[in-house]
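During data preparation, a discrete fold description was generated, as reproduced here:
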Amino acid sequence: MKHHADPTRRALLGSMAAAGGLAALGWPGGARAAAPSRGGHVRYGVRGGSTTDSLDPGTYSHAFVRTMGYAFCNTLVEIDGNNRLQPELLEFWEGSKGAASWVFRLRPGITFHDGKALTADDVIATVQHHVRPGSTSGARALMTAIKGMERLDDLTVRFTLEAGNADFPAIFSDYRMMVMPARDGVADFASGIGTGGYVLKNFEPGVRASLERNPNYWRADRAFFDSVDILAMSDATSRQNALLTGAIDVMDQADLKTVHMLKRKSGIEVASTTGGLHYTYAMNAELAPYDNMDLRLALKYGVDREALLQKVLRGYGSLGNDHPVAPTMAYYAADIEQRAYDPDRARHHLKKAGLDNVSLSLSVTDGLYQGAVDGVTLYREQLAPVGIDLEIARVPTDGFWTDTWMKKPFVAGIWGTRATADMILSAAYESTAAWNESFWREPRFDALLKAARTELDESRRAELYRDMQVMIRDEGAAVIPLFADNVFALSDRIGHPEAMSGAWELDGGRSIERWWIKA
């Protein structure tokens, strides 16, 4: 179970165990329309951004910090333009029989921006940063299976797990697992020093980040811009106007209400990618009335998903089925019946919960995603015939993730793609997960999740993931109505690979490293 990087750019055959080196560079099958050119300054307008933002990747939760982080840092593993796992800082990974032990070998010759060599010590310190006592990192739950780390030499680390995990390398593609330099055995995030293609020159939380190309970057095939400004612009109309007037060159999350007009504008390209991006209406299952499963089912049968898809997403997406495993992911159970809008059945479950009617409050912010408030407004209308009066609690975008999300009992949320089903389930549904936004804790689910990680028989593994999808769908405390495409816009002077990752916005969050200004 050995996976190599391919510095010679020759294609290797296979899947996770031996994937194509050309695919790792973002080119579909090695083909490309035009060679990238170097130089120039590019300006980004992206959503998110808060005065509470930190350089600690364990706290990253939105597009602004994610786009910035991927510019000045690298991860051990990346998701390429074809949504496949590839080594990044690693030269290879190799799992033992049973997948309970993994050897990671770093590429030689990589340095941080201050000249410090990348070594196994930095990898160990980065992992310890997320699992240390008192850590609130969103990646902590992904690391709980690690029983031990051993430095074999300057470039090699062996991980020993509590039990086998066939998806273990995928954990290190998570955007919070950006590798930080070790200082006296502790990961140094505060300095803003990474191994990435750009050097962070200025960081104003919630406002902007400025970066310049790293002249000593270890990749010759990435980081084409001379410099970059990333502006926090949560309002879609402001981003679009800035793009149209030439104030920015790239914007994430185009306004779907006006995207058809944007497509007709000369000098503008509108693009989209498909992945596991999905929206949630998450309830706190530990608080009444959301601790009642029938009330939760009433809220699930009370949403008209098709109407939301057409009116909020303008068709740029697909229907959700109240679980987070996307149709694009391995082990997606396509045979599970799609839940449909059924006010009568919703009323039935409301009465089973002992209620003829109920008033609830759903917290949402305009900056969460384009159409977030519109979607909740439609949901309110759809629930009215059920006997549920849904108050729309609009809250400020600034501070939403620290003051509202996982603080209020019923909150709108958004989740990006994870590389594997295990990663999204571990991040948001395992009982101990730091980002278990619905506070749904079910020992039966935890046992299934643990069993699936160690199961090497693919048929049995698929059965286990199907059981988990059904359990979350029917018993969980999150309404998941939609999977959304990433729809964004850019100046036509910006070039990009033909194949782009749908893992996150803007080519899996890595566009600053992967894109260029056309010659």
Notes: Residues 296 and 477 are 6 Å apart (CA to CA). The chain is about 25% helix and 25% strand. The first strand starts at residue 2 and ends at 4. The chain has a mean pLDDT of 91.
